[in-house]
Amino acid sequence: MEKKGRLLTIGQFAALHGINKKTLMWYDEIGLFRPALVNPENGYRYYSYCQSALLETILLLRELDVPIEEIQAFMKNRSAAGMERLLGEQIEALNQTMARLRAVQKTLCLHRRNMQTLLTMDLSEISLVHKKASCFVTVDIDRHTPFDRQVEMITAQTKKYRLRRLHDASYGTMIAVNSLQNGDFEDYSKLFIEIPFPIKKEGLHTQPAGNYVRAFYTDSGKNAVQCYQRIFGYAARHGLALSGFSYETIINKNVIDRAEDALVQIEIPAKPNPPA
C-alpha cells in the first residue's frame, strides 16, 4: 500500500480482509474492534490500513473457535505474554483435533479396506500379509465370562482411553495359538480394542509388526475349527511357525443385520521355521 495512513471505507476494509462488512459493524457494536474514524454527520465508519494486523489477529482467533469473551479479554490487555499463552493453548487444542482426525481417518481407511476385501478377494483363500505394529487395549475373559460383563469391561476401557465411541477403533477377540494347537478352539482369553492414535501407557498390548497368516470364516464354531485346521495345513506347507495370539475381527459388521452373517477375519503372527 502506498499510503498506509489512508482511511478505507467499511466496504473496502471488509473486502481487503475477505469478510462481510456486517462483521465489522458487529465487532464495533460489541466493542471488540472499532473503526479509526466515524463520520459524525452520517455515521459512516472508516478504517486505517494500520488496523489490519489487529483485525487479522481477531479473525485468526475466531477461526480457531476462541470464544468472543476470551478474545475481548485479550484485546483489552494485549501483551506478548498474553498472546504467547493464547496461541500456546490454541496450538495444543489443534494438536488434539488433528490427532482425533487422524484417528478417524485411520478408522475410515480400515472400514474401506474391509469393504474392498469383501468385494475383491477370494475369501476362501489363505494369504500371508505384512502388518505394522498396533497398540491394543485388552480385557481378560474366559469361556465363562457373561456377554453383558464383557460389554461392561469394554465400555469401561473405551472411556478410560478416551475413545469417543467403540466404533472409532477396530475391536475383536484373541485366542492363544497354544490353545488352538491343543485343539481348544473356544479358549478365548482376551477382548481387544485397537487404539487408533499414538499413546504411551503401561498395560497395553502390542500386536507386533511382521508377517501374518490371514484367513476368513463365517461366524460359527464348526466353520472356525475348519478354518484353523486349514491355517495349520497352510503353515506346515509353507514352513511357517505360528506364535502369540490369533486376532479375530468381524470385517462386515457395518453391512449386516444378522449375527450369523458375520465374516470373521483371522490373523496370526507367522515366521519361517528355524532350520533343522
Which helices and strands appear, and what pairs or packs with what?
Blueprint: E1 7-9, H1 10-16, H2 21-29, E2 37-38, E3 45-48, H3 52-63, H4 68-76, H5 80-120, E4 127-131, E5 134-140, H6 147-160, E6 171-176, H7 177-181, E7 188-194, E8 205-207, E9 210-218, H8 221-237, E10 240-242, E11 245-250, E12 263-272
Antiparallel strand pairs: 1-3, 2-3, 4-9, 5-7, 5-8, 6-7, 6-11, 9-12, 10-12, 11-12
Helix pairs in contact: 1-2
Task: Give a description of the structure.
With 276 residues, the chain is an alpha+beta fold. It has 8 helices and 12 strands. The protein has helices at residues 10-16, 21-29, 52-63, 68-76, 80-120, 147-160, 177-181, 221-237, and strands spanning 7-9, 37-38, 45-48, 127-131, 134-140, 171-176, 188-194, 205-207, 210-218, 240-242, 245-250, 263-272. The strands form 2 sheets. Strands 4, 5, 6, 7, 8, 9, 10, 11 and 12 form a 9-stranded antiparallel β-sheet that branches. It has a 3-stranded antiparallel β-sheet with strand order 1-3-2. β2 (37-38) and β3 form a beta hairpin. α1 packs across α2. The model has no long low-confidence stretch (mean pLDDT 87).
